[in-house]
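Protein in question quoted for reference:
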Amino acid sequence: QVQLVESGGGLVQPGGSLRLSCAASGFTFSIYAMSWFRQAPGKQRESVATVTSSGDTNYASSVKGRFTISRDNAKNTVYLQMNSLKSEDTAVYYCNSPARRWSWGQGTQVTVSS
């Protein structure tokens, strides 16, 4: 059974940083691209960053230069380092395979506010 457990969210001031983690289990993590998604209140879920099985990355234009996605295949974990946070980054953040879209985890809330 696939499990995706996100953590690391919280309340941070504009300009601050957070590091999110997603622990995955129940599938062969290393062979799948993984993405971080976010969903703000009243908005659709959107992809913000993807890391391929070989480590290539791509980002939504709204976060490029501020967010960094990475993975540790030995730990079956994907990370999202978020710097220079803005109020518009406030959302619940989720990880998933962009191809398989397994059942979503509970997500982790990120709130950027002064």
Notes: The longest strand covers residues 18-25. The chain has no helices and ten strands. The mean pLDDT is 97. Strands lie at 3-7, 10-12, 18-25, 34-39, 46-51, 57-59, 67-72, 77-82, 91-96, 108-112.
